[in-house]
Amino acid sequence: MRFLCDENVGSALIAALRQRDPALVIWAVGDPGAPPRGTADPVILLWCEEQDFVLVTNNRRTMPEHLAEHLNGGHHTPGILQLNPDIGIGETAELLLLAAHASWPDEHRDQIKYLPVL
Hints:
Largest sheet: 5 strands, parallel
Helix content: 25-40%
Strand content: 5-15%
Distance between the termini: 16 Å
Strand order of the largest sheet: 2-1-3-4-5
Order of helices and strands: EHEHEHEHE
């Protein structure tokens, strides 16, 4: 599983993930090869579909609507993992690593799952 963190995900979480599992592919919006900062959510969903990245986001307000529009347009997504603001960085990193290593390949397909997911 590969993760793309939207621009609202803090760099401390990304650093914690990279430190805990250097082999994990985790990109952030704005990284080389990823969508640039300021990219609209519908475009990010298309990118995630094309590149097979699970989106990690804090966007609870509009992401469900964007996902519905994406799916209604005949598209798919490897999944969206919604962060829980009440869980600290260390626990969030562990939950994401668990999702990355213990999920079936299409387990999160076309869904938003809220941490903790397992």
